Protein: Bifunctional DNA primase/polymerase
Amino acid sequence: MEETMGVTSAAHIPKQRGESLLDTAVRYAEERHWDVFPGTWLESVEGAEICSCGDAACTTPGSHPAREDWATQATGSATVARRLWNKQPKSSILLPTGRTFDAIDVPETAGFLALARMERMELTLGPVTCTPDRRMQFFVLPGAAAKVPDLVRKLGWPPAAIDLVALGEGTYVAAPPTRFGATGAVQWACRPTAANRWLPDAEEIISPLAYACGREARR
Structure:
């Protein structure tokens, strides 16, 4: 997925394959100045991988906050991030939204359709993640969560009718290479590069995203 649609280029953050979660978390803080915090992790029990939270019915095994006060634990310091992951090297990497970025969350099928349209429109994209549960998150400037519903309405779509959600303060996204149980790992659809360090405003990309989500909703 990392080279999809020709919208990616050489990563500013090196590939995560073979890198430890600790090193990757430190790179996010150091190179992108993103806040990071450690989430739950996967443990092997009798041949099966279960979430460290201990809930056998956990819906996001190994990829959710490990403590209720996660927002206060999140840090943009590479030194603090290293210390946090040294305590539990298998912890997932979670990024709080509403700080250095918000994220627009859409279904994977709509996300890839929107990426193709954005490329044709020559829009500047920020990083985009693709998760094993078939969702995509488009990173945009903070403040998107407050204005996306109105932007969608202005485009003629009732926000409740399309599967498009803006994630802002109080929420988070899982960062590559965090794993979702046995279903796979989060990947970059558009990787962080020097070129996309400056994120787009939600208004710049909402039209192709809303169109793609609306098209999916009509199916």
Observations:
- The mean pLDDT is 90.
